[in-house]
């Protein structure tokens, strides 16, 4: 969630707090913070927005527009290349929006949506006084993804599995879900989703994946920084879809972080791919440790 702030000094937080931001939901609350007032926090917040650390180690630049009186939008330009696990280089822009409403501070991630219509992740911060504390409500909306970064990963997957294609286009109108967007891979030589599954499954098994009793395939991949990550992939015949569950570091594959859907269409012959992150509210102590990083970065900014 906030891995890009791995070096930030933290502010102590606890989860499972009865949210006053979103009634009936759980949130996160900090311990009392000395020498900070709502006025000082506001000044620190806007200074942090303009001077925050790199969104990613692959950030190549950024543009900031708007103002704190309305809203500020920061466009983070990112290019991913030079990784041994990737056969492709891909780049794009991530859009973050920051504003204040009804005394709360909003941090909104719209992914690659430059029109800021599809909200992906939202963090809301509220100042509490006597003593001064910060309350946080943090949620992933689960909005459908089909942007340039998902495109890059999809292209890499097709190449490593030796699936023929001419090109992959991001954010294309979905041929199976009117009004939604998908990735579309054209120039393929496959006649069915099941044929793609058989070829992809064989490639995964050759690379060391294990086949489960139900025919699904579990792949363990070396983490870019530390822990291994796990993906469980299966063919759902009833829906004619290949479904891959990204389970992060959970070797049991019970904690699904995102779901990747893929199918082959005949007219025209293309592969369609779309992704749904898990919709969730961050309110446990593990999430509180991550939230503490961004709060610490704001509070401790000079």
Brief characterization of the structure:
This protein has two domains: 3-141 and 279-299, Alpha-D-Glucose-1,6-Bisphosphate, Chain A, domain 4; 148-277, no CATH class. Helices cover 19% and strands 39% of the residues. It has four helices and 17 strands.
How is the secondary structure organized here?
Blueprint: E1 13-18, E2 26-30, H1 38-51, E3 59-67, E4 71-80, E5 90-101, E6 104-109, E7 121-128, E8 133-140, H2 148-160, E9 167-173, E10 181-186, H3 193-206, E11 210-211, E12 217-221, E13 229-236, E14 241-246, E15 258-265, E16 270-277, E17 280-282, H4 285-299
For the record, the CATH class of the largest domain is Alpha Beta
Shape: elongated
Largest sheet: 9 strands, antiparallel
- Helical amount: 10-25%
State mean pLDDT (0 to 100 scale): 92
Q: Quote the distance from N terminus to C terminus.
A: 24 Å
Low-confidence stretches: 1-8
Instruction: Quickly count the domains.
Output: 2
Strand content: 35-45%
Q: Radius of gyration, rounded?
A: 21 Å
Q: Helix/strand-derived class?
A: alpha+beta
Please report the total strand number as a whole number. 17
Order of helices and strands: EEHEEEEEEHEEHEEEEEEEH
CATH topology of the largest domain: Alpha-D-Glucose-1,6-Bisphosphate, Chain A, domain 4
């Amino acid at each position: 969630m906030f891995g890009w702030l791995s070096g930030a000094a933290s502010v102590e937080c606890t989860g499972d707090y009865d949210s006053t931001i979103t009634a009936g939901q759980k949130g996160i609350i900090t311990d009392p913070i000395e020498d900070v007032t709502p006025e000082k926090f506001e000044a620190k917040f806007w200074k942090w927005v303009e001077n925050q650390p790199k969104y990613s180690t692959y950030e190549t630049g950024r543009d900031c527009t708007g103002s704190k009186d309305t809203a500020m939008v920061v466009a983070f330009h990112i290019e991913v290349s030079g990784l041994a696990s990737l056969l492709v280089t891909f780049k794009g822009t991530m859009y973050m929006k920051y504003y204040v409403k009804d005394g709360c501070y909003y941090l909104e991630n719209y992914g690659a949506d430059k029109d800021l219509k599809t909200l992906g992740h939202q963090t809301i911060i509220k100042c509490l006084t006597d003593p001064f504390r910060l309350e946080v409500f943090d949620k992933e909306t689960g909005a459908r993804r089909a942007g340039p970064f998902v495109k890059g990963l999809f292209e890499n997957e097709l190449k490593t599995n030796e699936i023929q294609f001419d090109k992959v286009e991001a954010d294309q109108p979905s041929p199976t879900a009117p009004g939604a967007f998908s990735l579309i891979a054209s120039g393929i030589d496959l006649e069915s989703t099941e044929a793609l599954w058989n070829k992809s499954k064989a490639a995964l098994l050759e690379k060391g994946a294990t086949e489960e009793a139900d025919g699904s395939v579990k792949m363990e991949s070396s983490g870019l920084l530390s822990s291994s990550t796990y993906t469980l992939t299966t063919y759902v015949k009833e829906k004619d879809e290949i479904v891959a569950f990204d389970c992060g570091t959970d070797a049991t594959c019970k904690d699904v972080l995102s779901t990747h859907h893929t199918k082959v269409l005949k007219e025209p012959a293309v592969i369609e791919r779309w992704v749904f992150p898990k919709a969730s509210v961050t309110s446990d102590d593990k999430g509180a440790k991550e939230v503490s990083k961004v709060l610490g970065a704001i509070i401790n900014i000079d």
